[in-house]
Fold:
Amino acid sequence: MKEIFSYLRKIISLSGSNKLRLLTIFLIFVMQAIIELIGIGLIAPYLELIFNFEQSVDRVAWFVEYFNLPINQKLLIQYTSYLLLFIFSVKLLVAILLNYVIVNFVQNRRLLLAMRLLDSYQSMPYSEYKHKNSSEYIYRIQVLSYEYANVVLAPMLRVIGDLTVGLGLIIMLVIYNPSVFIMVCMAFVMIIMGYDYLTNSTVKSAGAECNLSSEKMIKHTKEAMTGFKEIRVLGSEAYFKSRLQNAIQEFIKNMTKVQLLTLVPKLLIEWIFIVMLVLLVLSDFRSYELSNYLLTTLGLFGIAAIRLLPMFNQMASMLLSIRASKNTVDILYKDCNTHKRDESTASSGQKVDFRSLELKGVSFGYSNSTRLILDDVNLTITKGEMIGLVGPSGSGKSTLLDIIMGLTLPSEGRVLLNTKELKTRTD
Structure:
C-alpha cells in the first residue's frame, strides 16, 4: 500500500499543478455521473412498462398523479422513450466534452514535463553529462514523456471518471437486487486481484526491460548513422546492424508480455459476466418459470454492464499499465528532481570585455580515479595573444578547456577571469 501511495505521489508531482483545470474535469465527471444515473435508472421502469405494465404503474403511481399523466401503456412508453433519447443525447455531448478536456490536459502535461526534463538536463553538471549517452536524454524527453501522458495519466483520469459513474451505478444495482450484485462483484474482485497478484512482478520487470531496450535502439541507431563514413570505410555495417537487431528483438519480447498480460483481464471479465448471466437464468428457471422480474433484472444489469464492463476492463488494464510504467515514472521523477536550475550560476548571455585569463595551481582528477589528468597547471593569457595546446590524446587538453570555460571545477587551484575568480555555470 505504501508503494502505491508513493507511486501516485510521483505521478501527481510530474503532472504539475493546475487546480482550475482539475476542478473543471471533476465537475464534468460529476455532471456525467448524474446524467448516467438518471438514464440507466430509467431502464428498469421502462422495461417494466413493456413487460409488466400493471406492477410498474403501481410503483410510480405518485409520479403519474403528480404530473397528471394518462394511465395508458402506449403513451407512457412513448413519453419514457423520448425522455431516454434526450438524456442519452445529453450524455453523448458531455462525454465528448469530457474526452476533449482530458486529452487537452494530458497533452499539455506532456509538454510541461518535456520542458522540465530539458531544463533539468541543461542544469546538470558537465562532468555528469559526459558520462551518459545523449540518446538517453532524447529517449526520455521524446518517448517517456509520451508514455507518461498517454499510458499513465490519461487512463488514470478516465478511470477516476468511470469510478464516479460506477459508484452511483453500483449503489443503484445494490438497491435493485443486492444478491445478484454481490455475487457478480465477488467473482470480479477475486479473479482480477488474483490475476494482478500473479502477474505483478512479471509486468514490472517487462516494463523496465522495454525502457532499457528502447534506449539501446535509439543509441545503436544514432551510432550507426553518425559514424556513417567510418563504418562504410571499415565495412562494419553488420556489427551495428546486429546490435540494433538484438535490441529490437529484446523490446519485442518484453512488449509482447506486457500487451498480452494487459489483454487477458478484458477477456476474463467478459467470461465472468456471461457465466453470471447463465447462472442467474438457470437458477430462476429451475425454481419456476422465467419471471417478468428476471427479465427486468437482466435488462437493468445488462445496460449497466455495457457501462461497467469497459470500466472494469480499463481498471484491470490500468493496474497492469501502472506496473509496467513504474520504471518510466521513477526515471522521470528522478530526472525532474535531481537537477534544479541555479540562476546565480547560469550564463547571463552578456558579453565580457576580456583582458586576461589566469590559471593558478590548477589540478584535476576524477573522483573514481587517483590519477591526475592535470597537475599544478599555471598559465596566463592576455588580450591579443594566440595560444595553442599541443599533446597526445588523453593528456588533458579538452579537460583544460572545460575548466577555462567554467564547465568543470578544478580539483585544486583557481581560474581568474579579469582578475576575478571564475565560477562554474553548471555545478
The radius of gyration is 33 Å. Residues 170 and 181 are 8 Å apart (CA to CA). Strands lie at 356-364, 374-382, 412-417, 420-421.
